[in-house]
Specification:
The chain is α/β, with parallel strands linked by helices. It has one domain (about 1-120): Transcription Regulator spoIIAA. It is built from 4 helices and 8 strands; from the N terminus they run E-E-E-E-H-E-E-H-E-H-E-H. The strands form 2 sheets. Strands 1-2-3-5-7-8 form a 6-stranded mixed sheet, with helices on both faces. Strands 4-6 form a two-stranded parallel sheet. Strand 1 and strand 2 form a beta hairpin. The longest helix is centred in the last third of the chain and has 17 residues, at about 110-129. The protein starts with a strand and ends with a helix.
Length: about 130
């Protein structure tokens, strides 16, 4: 299994799906989001990935982080499934995504297995042509 981590997040690849999980609760800041994206790019080898992004430990995500992610956060991705821990967060996240169109398929889930299933479906469709 391919793995890579930094001081606050761990990445690994299983069956062609990139996974990540924070090591502790975090209040994101611009430096952290830049390091996260750099680490994700490094594990992907700058090749597009299907990413299951567990953000259950994220306690805050300020506007400067959202702005940075909007510009640089979708590079080297085919699709992203975000795993969150509440239905209210899921509703708010998916509503936000409807207002701010993503360049790639991007959806929030409260169930990690469903998130991975969704990524596998997109991956299978892309591989079929």
């Amino acid at each position: 299994m391919t793995e890579l981590e930094n001081e606050f997040i761990r990445f690994w690849v299983v069956d062609g799906i990139l996974h990540s999980k924070f090591k502790m609760e975090v209040n994101m800041d611009l430096d952290m989001i830049q390091k996260l994206i750099e680490t994700r790019h490094a594990i992907s080898g700058n090749v597009n990935q299907y990413w299951c992004y567990d953000v259950e430990a994220v306690r805050s995500f300020p506007k400067e982080c959202r702005d940075y992610v909007e510009i640089y956060g979708q590079d080297f991705l085919f699709a992203t499934a975000v795993v969150i821990n509440s239905h209210i967060q899921k509703f708010l996240f998916n509503t936000f995504l409807k207002l701010k169109k993503s360049k790639i398929p991007f959806q929030a889930f409260t169930n990690k297995e469903k998130a991975i299933e969704w990524l596998r479906e997109i991956k299978a469709k892309n591989e079929q042509g």
